[in-house]
Amino acid sequence: MRSKLDLNSYDISLFARKNVNKVLILIMGSLASIANAQENDSIIIDSNPLHIQDIDQLNRLPISFSNRNVNDFTQTEVYFSHKKNEFSRKQTAAETNRYGFKSQGLFNVKNDIKIFGTIKLEKYLEKDLAFNLSDDRTDDAEVLNPHYYFVPRSSDWNNQQYHISGGAIKSFGGFNLAIKASLDANKLARQVDPRPEISNRKLYGEISAGYTLKNHQIFVLGGYGQKDKDYNYYYSNDQLDSPANPDTYIRFQSGFGRVINKPYSTKSNFSRKTFKHLGAGYQYTSANTVLGVDYAYEHDLENIYNEEFKSDSYLRFQYQTISYQGNLRLRHRINDKVLRANLSGYKTTSKNFDNISIGTNYMNRQRNVTFDINFSKQKDQLVKYYFGAIASYNQNRYMDQLAYVDQKINSLNVGIYGNKDIETNNKSKFNIGLSFNYYTAIKNELDYINIYGTTDNIFYNEVIRNDFAYNSLDKLDTRADIRYILPIKNNKNVVIYTQLRSIFALNKNRNNVVEINTNTTYQANFGIQLNY
User: Fold this and answer.
1) Cβ 479 vs Cβ 434: under 8 Å
2) pLDDT in tens, 294-346
3) DSSP character for 461?
4) Which of 57, 96, 298, 352 has the most Cβ atoms closer than 10 angstroms to its Cβ?
């Protein structure tokens, strides 16, 4: 049986231990050696959300700050986040609670040396997650990466994750050098049968080298990373792992609809993913203007092995991703006003190779163009106003040749955002922020041939059709942000913040084929932050 759905009315076409210890000692030692030098420094990056784009740029491309003056800053916070998913994709938890600690900062050791770093520790609890026994979620992804077990039965999860990163920027006359390294680790555990236990360890390093002549800088960069994943599962009641119990009988997804029973000889497997990153760029810097462009290529290859063996003779699957990304950015100051604009885009192609079938069964292509522009006026530490607009166009395709599933999604996101400081009599202030983002699917098509009949078609019926209907509906993502900033001595301040978010389904009557939950999804964040 062959079916083709178009729900839219539009017809517009934790690492090796020895490596962990070395990097931890290097990062923590570097930060500790300069911690005492920041006590009397002023702050230009504070708690206002407008500075998030500067911090993101620092972490993404540190060499672009080699010729720019950035005062020392530190942000340390504890936070809690609660998210209730009603209107959502299928392979997403119905509820998620997060508790975390985060600290990030930049320190000027000398005029020509900057050191920066981030530490983040988080524990998160998920409730009622079904059809997904992996460490990926579909909160912000249309389709999960292949190679994961699933069962229809939902369960709670108990998870934790850690992130440590650091880097340094150094100038040698006209020559510029930047290095950065990061460590990421997480551990996830499901609470009922089947009970997977997953642990990841990722180590990544990157070096950038450039040359500056007057106002002009050119640079190149290269990075390499490795991520290891250990996966195993067990049943407290082995009778549940039987076709007679379809709600708990474990199956394996190797693509987008291709279901395999028991691809491995045991209940454990190992995967290793490598990251190879190359890039180059140019930046013009003057007293009031920064104009930059950069381009990057990345090749990722994940090898999934039968059991925990790492030799080629036990290689079961390979998943390759090739991506290209470009950015054009502008920052221009006019007295106490700043204009920022960024044009970015990427394209990625991923392929899944089955070593037993000796062929490629799954492929996805993703294309994106995003334009973001904002304008702010700030006097001393008081933001008079900050507002901006963003538009993003996505063109994605997910195709599984052995499952006969082909989905095409072209979508548009447009949004506006802004915030403003309100000063009080005791020199403290409130910051009020709002944002609205509208999503619409310009094209959403699903082409499918049912090769399973009615006996084992649950993944298509419960996951693919549900998420296809979700992606077809227009959405409004609204956010409100309230911050109270209380200054204390020595240029320090304490921030107490609350963030509220809601996601609404706008055109509930468009979908007449698949019934999904269109009740509002909401999220609330709370935190206390120290800036100095």
Assistant:
1) yes
2) 999 999 999 999 876 667 778 999 999 999 999 999 999 998 999 999 999 99
3) I
4) 352
Q: How many domains does the chain have?
A: 1
Residue 306 structural domain: 2-531
- Give the CA distances from residue 477 to residues 144, 154, 504, 506, in Å, rounded to whole numbers and listed in that order: 22, 26, 7, 10
Name which of 116, 131, 123, 209 is nearest 168 in CA terms.
116
Nearest to 251 by CA among 260, 242, 264: 260
The number of helix segments (H) and strand segments (E) in the chain equals 4, 22
Q: What is the mean pLDDT of residues 116-137?
A: 98
Start-to-end CA span in the chain (Å): 64
CA angle 330, 333, 337 (to 5 degrees): 120
Alpha-carbon dihedral angle through residues 355, 356, 360, 362, given to the nearest 10 degrees? -100
CA-wise closest residue to 113 among 192, 170, 179: 170
CA distance 52 to 234: 42
Q: Residue 271 corresponds to which tokens in the numbers above?
A: 């995967």
Query: Residue 32: pLDDT above 50?
Result: no
At residue 506 the predicted structure's pLDDT band, cuts being 50, 70 and 90, is very high
**Cα separation values, 487 from 396, 426, 428, 530, Å:** 47, 9, 6, 10
Lowest mean per-residue pLDDT among 260-264, 274-278, 441-445, 497-501: 260-264
Query: Domain containing 444 — which CATH number?
Result: 2.40.160
Looking up tokens 């699933």, which residue turns up? 150
User: Which CA distances in Å does 302 have to 13, 200, 364, 505?
Assistant: 34, 13, 15, 36
CA pair distance 53, 139, nearest whole angstrom: 22
What pLDDT shows up at residue 46?
Answer: 86
- List, in sequence order, every residue forming a beta bridge with 272; answer none if it has no partner: 228, 303
pLDDT digit string, tens, across residues 156-166: 999 999 999 99
pLDDT digits (tens, 9 = 90+) for 260-295: 887 777 889 999 999 999 999 999 999 899 999 999
457-460 long-range CB contacts below 8 Å, 24 or more apart?
458/152, 458/246, 459/131, 459/150, 459/251, 459/253, 459/257, 459/259, 460/257, 460/405
As a whole number of angstroms, the distance between CA 281 and CA 326 comes to 9
If you average pLDDT over residues 350-374, what whole number do you get?
Answer: 93
* Average pLDDT estimate for 25-33: 40
Q: What is this structure's pTM? A: 0.88
**Overall residue count recorded for the chain in this entry:** 532
**DSSP states of 205-234:** EEEEEEEEETTEEEEEEEEEEEEEEEEEEE
Which backbone phi and psi does 472 adopt, to 5 degrees?
A: -80, -20
Question: Helix, strand, or coil here: 262?
Answer: coil
Q: How many CB atoms lie within 10 A of CB 98?
A: 17
Locate tokens 């007057």: which residue? 214
Could you write out the DSSP letters of every residue in 185-196?
EEEEEESSSSEE
